[in-house]
Amino acid sequence: MIRTITLRRVLLITLLALLSTSQAGIVFAGTNIWTSNGPVAVSINALVIDPATSGILYAGTSRGGIFKSIDNGEHWIAVNTGLANTHISALAIDPVNPATLYAGTDGDGVFKSVNGGESWNAINTDLTCPYIFALAIDPSTPTTLYAGTPCGVFKSTNGGGTRSAVNTSLPDTFVFALAIDPLTPATLYAGTYDGGVSKSTNGGGNWNAFNAGLTNADVRALAIDPVTPTTLYAGTERGVFAVQQEEFRYRAYIPLVQRGR
C-alpha cells in the first residue's frame, strides 16, 4: 500500500514536471486583463507583428533600439546591428516579405533590414528631414514606402532606395501619423500637428483637408477599418474621432472618446 502511494506520488510529480516543461514556451495572456510580456525598463514607441508568423514581434524603444521576440513576447533580444540611432519612433513590416522591415529614428532617418532585424542599413537618399514620426507601406506594392516627418511626407517607390517629398497642398507639414486604404492604396491620410487630417487619392500627388466635424486639429494617430475602409478613426489631444465616408461626400467626424467628459 505504501509502495503504491509512493509510486502515485512519483508519477504525479513526473506528470507535473512534464506539463510545466511542455508549456514553458507558451505565453498566457490574462483573460480581459493585460499581462506584462516585456521588454522591461524601456519605453515602447512602436510595435509590429510578423503577418506570416504571429509569434514574431518587434518593439521599437526610446533609447534601447529594437527588440525582437520569436515566442509571442516571452523572451526578447536586442537587434540593433547597424543602427546609428537607438531612439526608434516608428516601425513598418513588409506584408509580403516579413523579413523586410523599416525603422524610423529620431534624428537619423530611416533604416532597413532584409533579414528579420539581424542587421540594418540607412536608406536616407533624398530624405532631407531625418526625424521620422510615422511609416506606412503600400499593401499592394510593398516597395512603396511613405514617411511622416516634421517636414511633410516623403515617398519612395523602390523600397527606400530614393524618395521625394509629396506635400502639394498639404496645409500642415508636421506629420505625426499616416494611414493607407487597404483596398485602394492610392488613397492615404496624414494626421498633422495643427492641420487636422489631410487626404490624398493619388498616392500623395496632392492633398485636401478632411476635417469637417473634427474639433481638435492636433492628430497623433490614424486607423482605418480593414473591413470597411471608408471608416476612419483619428486620435487627437481631445480623444478619438470617427468619420464614415460615402461616395462623393463624407459625414462629419463624430467624437468617440473625449478627455474631460
Low-confidence stretches: 1-26
Q: What class would the helix/strand composition place it in?
A: mainly beta
Order of helices and strands: HEEEEEEEEEEEEEEEEEEEEE
Please identify which CATH superfamily of the domain at 38-165 we are dealing with. YVTN repeat-like/Quinoprotein amine dehydrogenase
Shape field: globular
**Whole-number mean pLDDT:** 86
Please name the CATH topology of the domain at 38-165: Methylamine Dehydrogenase, Chain H
The major pleated sheet works out as:
5 strands, antiparallel
**Cα-based radius of gyration, to the nearest Å:** 22 Å
* Tally of helical runs: 1
In the CATH scheme, the class of the domain at 38-165 would be Mainly Beta
Helical percentage? under 10%
Content of β-strand? 35-45%
CATH architecture label name of the domain at 38-165: 7 Propeller
The strand count comes to: 21
Termini separation comes to 70 Å
Give the gist of this structure.
This protein is mostly beta strands and 261 residues long. It is 8% helix and 36% strand. The protein has a domain at 38-165: Methylamine Dehydrogenase, Chain H (7 Propeller), CATH 2.130.10.10.
Keywords:
disordered N terminus; 261 residues; 21 strands; 4-stranded antiparallel β-sheet; Methylamine Dehydrogenase, Chain H; globular; single chain; 5-stranded antiparallel β-sheet; mainly beta
Task: Give an overview in words.
By secondary structure, this protein is mainly beta. The chain has a domain of about 130 residues: 7 Propeller (Methylamine Dehydrogenase, Chain H). Strand 14 and strand 15 form a beta hairpin. The longest helix is centred in the N-terminal third of the chain and has 21 residues. It is globular and about 45 Å long. The termini are far apart. The N terminus is likely disordered.
